[in-house]
């Protein structure tokens, strides 16, 4: 997430920084950061994005899942998953989308021009708390949230953030009010460096309560030199999945698919 005020009076887009390579999910991902002189969240690659991608590397998900990289920063997690075959949409505030689209294009074709991107992943400008654009009003299977919790708390953006999660969860306000459609509820996958544990935990608890989901702590499996690229050895990291309770999952699995059962009998 980027505050538009940091662009300055010139209104110029951020300069693209030097590229860096990451080995994830069997592919080399090449990313450029934005203007790092601003030292702001969307213009650098955060450890949470790397942790999320490594989670899928260690525990791949079967089937072609539809993934949203929410407030994706430079796009590391979403681009890595897209290269691995997942159907990915990346979003961040519009001021950061030049960097995101450039990185998508770079990893799709080896070129830097945005118009050269050939369908690797969709990139959409979006600000928390606003109605979802049409590109986000679909049923995602997984929503990635990399290093967002501290920013939510420190920026006093909890209401805006939780409103967005509720939209994506297909809850109250879905469809006509700007939320996701389709009835499927995603898992929300959080990966982050713990900076203010109590406050970050409160944001997560509020999200679980608002969405009617349960928290599942996930193990972080780190090995090899690649973990040194973004992780600080003295820092603490966490990964948590917000998901439906097992009883709810079982109940939904027992329901007949749409267009079968009683509805079909009524048509005969």
Description:
The chain is an alpha/beta fold and 268 residues long. It has helices at residues 47-58, 76-83, 97-109, 149-154, 158-168, 197-211, 246-254, 262-267; strands spanning 19-24, 27-32, 66-70, 87-92, 122-125, 142-146, 187-193, 214-217, 237-243. The protein starts with 18 loop residues before the first strand and ends with a helix.
In what range is the share of β-strand residues? 15-25%
Distance between the termini: 52 Å
- List segments where confidence is low: pLDDT < 50 over at least 5 consecutive residues: 1-14, 110-117, 172-176, 260-268
Helicity range of the residues?
25-40%
Helix count, DSSP H or I runs of 4 or more residues? 8
Report the radius of gyration as a whole number of Å.
19 Å
Overall pLDDT metric: 80
List the strand order in the largest sheet: 5-4-3-6-7-9-8
Shape: globular
For the secondary structure, the number of strands is 9
Question: Could you state the order of secondary-structure elements as H and E?
Answer: EEHEHEHEEHHEHEEHH
Most strands sheet: 7 strands, mixed
Characteristic key phrases:
single chain; 268 residues; alpha/beta; two-stranded antiparallel ribbon; 8 helices; 30% helix; globular
Secondary-structure map:
Blueprint: E1 19-24, E2 27-32, H1 47-58, E3 66-70, H2 76-83, E4 87-92, H3 97-109, E5 122-125, E6 142-146, H4 149-154, H5 158-168, E7 187-193, H6 197-211, E8 214-217, E9 237-243, H7 246-254, H8 262-267
Parallel strand pairs: 3-4, 3-6, 4-5, 6-7
Antiparallel strand pairs: 1-2, 7-9, 8-9
